[in-house]
Design goal:
By secondary structure, this protein is of the alpha/beta class. The chain is 37% helix and 12% strand. The protein has an 8-stranded parallel sheet with strand order 6-5-4-3-2-1-8-7. The chain is globular and about 40 Å long. It binds pterin-6-yl-methyl-monophosphate (PMM).
């Protein structure tokens, strides 16, 4: 397994380090863009291999959809979906992250060879998560999060911000402090502004146009904007979510310019091309 591929380089304010591409494999029946496509082990593994051939340095495997209104699944069902895929990819030497809010899933994935724990709740959904991160010593992607999009729950996570950039920054900093108190090594933390989580379209754009300010928290930053709903306004209303790939790839290139550590995308080839262009245009 190539640990080198996921090692962190020191933060540099000028984006001269090409961001890592994290390819998405959702082993779910209901994710908004690829739900149901990769439920079988063979098709999930084949898709992950395609993503790596297209230029992904990492594959993110998730078994629970986080789209608004999605049913939560039990940790047991989540593990039934993701663990065989994670094991198969790790066996093939592919660096894998596990996309989970459950500490038990994170631990089991770590035991099977996952190299990163990616938690959209940054440890808030499961109080045992920080301990698993601390004990396994894996890298931890901690996203900005204000609560679940539970089905039938009218109290959707709040999009009330005084200033979205300042508030997201402060809430992420608080998460970092809490994680460190719980034993997580600072050099294991990667931050994510949680595009689409408790944010309006306008707030997503505000955050994306200020990625460089997120970088100044002092931790590597990952951006996950791929095919998200706010990009739907840029294409015809009945277009498939894949029609959002050019917009996603453009965000990847602009995120590279802002110095991010990584981008999480469905269409790896489109983002690879965008990053090739970005790299060729470096002075
Ligand atoms: N978004 C989704 C799922 N996991 N993980 C990180 N770190 N950042 C994200 O923005 C993020 C995530 C939801 O999108 P999907 O259903 O396409 O996976």
């Amino acid at each position: 397994m190539s640990v080198e591929l996921v090692s962190l380089r020191p933060y540099r304010p000028i984006g001269l380090t090409r961001p890592r591409i994290m390819g998405i494999v959702n082993v779910t029946p209901d994710s908004f863009s690829d739900g149901g496509d990769y439920l079988e082990l063979d098709s999930a593994v084949a898709h992950a291999e395609e993503l790596v051939s297209a230029g992904a340095q990492l594959v993110d495997v998730g078994g629970e959809s986080t789209r608004p209104g999605a049913e939560r699944v039990s940790a047991i069902e989540e593990q039934r979906r993701v663990l065989p895929v994670i094991e198969a990819l790790a066996d093939r030497g592919i660096p894998v992250s596990v996309d989970t809010m459950n500490a038990s899933t994170a631990r089991a994935a770590a035991e099977l060879g996952a190299v990163i724990i990616n938690d959209v709740s940054a440890g808030l959904a499961d109080s045992g998560m920080a301990r698993v991160v601390a004990e396994t010593g894996l890298h931890f992607i901690a996203s900005h999060w204000r609560g679940p999009n539970a089905p039938g729950d009218t109290s959707r996570p709040s999009t009330n911000y005084g200033n979205v950039l300042r508030d997201v920054r402060n809430e992420l900093k608080n998460r970092v402090a809490e994680l460190i108190v719980n034993g997580v090594r600072p050099d294991r933390i990667i931050l994510d502004p949680g595009i689409g989580f408790a944010k309006t379209a306008e707030q997503n754009w505000q955050l994306l146009s200020n990625i460089a300010a997120l970088n100044t928290i002092g931790y590597p930053v990952l951006i996950g904007a791929s095919r998200k709903r706010f990009l739907g306004a840029l294409v015809p209303p009945d277009a498939p979510t894949s029609a959002r790939d050019p917009a996603t790839a453009t965000i990847s290139a602009l995120a590279a310019q802002a110095g991010v550590w990584g981008v999480r995308v469905h269409n790896v080839a489109a983002t690879r091309d965008a990053l090739d262009v970005w790299e060729a245009m470096q002075p």
